[in-house]
Design a protein that fits this description.
- There is one protein chain.
- By secondary structure, the protein is an alpha+beta fold.
- The chain is about 40% helix and about 10% strand.
- It has a two-stranded antiparallel ribbon with strand order 1-2.
- β1 (about 10) and β2 (about 15-20) form a beta hairpin.
Length: about 80
């Protein structure tokens, strides 16, 4: 099972945690103490870096960039 949510990190003592919204917990039947795997992708960094490398001289095909972004995000 794979679910994708966007969440902000919260401080818990000296640690950071992610809150999973209740709607996803119910929909996916998640239970306390159940093991899950979390993949972390920092929002805003991927495309920002990509645009910065192109500079003003390159002609950008917006559809190709959207397709590539979707391909990366759906790994």
């Amino acid at each position: 099972m794979v679910i994708r949510i966007k969440s902000k990190l919260k401080e818990f003592g000296n640690s950071l945690g992610v809150v999973i919204p209740k709607e996803f917990i119910i929909r996916e039947g998640l239970k306390p103490n159940e093991e899950v795997v979390i993949t972390i992708i920092k929002c805003g960094g991927i495309l920002k870096d990509f645009f910065g490398k192109l500079g003003g001289e390159a002609k950008i095909d917006a559809q190709k960039m959207k397709d590539e972004s979707r391909r990366i995000w759906n790994l």
